[in-house]
C-alpha cells in the first residue's frame, strides 16, 4: 500500500509547496489550515506525517477497514501507520486540520502520553465526537496555531508545540482511560517511568545503561515476553520499537542542541562504533546524522 509523503499531499491538494519541503528531506514541518473540502474523499493510504482534523459537517471516516460516521462535529487523530480516508458527505464542511512530522515534534511529547493518544497508538479509536463546548475549545486552539504560524514571533514554533500538546491531551481526556487501572496498566506506567529516567542524556561520560528489552524486563522483575506482549497490546508497538524510537528522538535532540560529534553521540547512546550508529540512524530517518544536523540547523 502506498504511503503518502508531505510533498505528495501538497501536490494532491494543489497547494503551494513549502520551500523547505521542496529543497530538503527530513526537515521540520508544520502547517495548519481551515477546511474547505466539499463532497470529496481523500485517498485511502498511509502517510509519512501526522494529521489532526477538526471536522464540522457530516462524513465517514475509514481507518484500518473500519467505518466511523461523523455527525455534526468531531476531531480525528490520524496515525501515520494506519491506512485511512475521509469522505465528506454533507455539502457544508468546515473546521481545521494541521500537518506535522516527527522532526517537528522532536521530544515535545512524552512516551507515556503517546501511548494514550490515537495519534501515536493505532489501538485507540481515532474519531472523537465533539459537543458545542469542546468544538469551541478545539476551534480556539486551532485558531491560535493558525495565528502563531502567520506571525513573525521568533519562538512561534515552540508555542505551536505547546498548543499542539494541549490538543493531544484534550483528546486523551475526552477519550477517557485506555485501559482500566489494573496490573498491566501499572506495568506500562512503570516501564515508561523507567524509560524516561534514562533521558535526557547530559554528558558523553554518562552513557545509556538500559538498551534492550531484556534489560528493562530485568529491572521490572518480569519476563521479557510478558513485557513485550503487554506493550504490544496497549501501544501497538513492541518493547524494542519503543526503545528504538526514544533513542532516535534523543539522537535528534543531541544533533540539534549540542556540538558533540557523531562518535560522542554514538557512544553515549550505547553504540560501540560510530558506523553502527550511522547505519541505525539512517534506517530510522532515511538520512545520516550529520546531514540531519545540517538540514535542521539551516531550517532553524
From TrEMBL:
GO terms for molecular function: DNA-binding transcription factor activity; sequence-specific DNA binding. Keywords: DNA-binding, Transcription, Transcription regulation. Gene3D superfamilies: Homeodomain-like. Residues 189-295 form the HTH araC/xylS-type domain. PROSITE patterns: HTH_ARAC_FAMILY_2. SMART domains: HTH_ARAC. This is Helix-turn-helix transcriptional regulator.
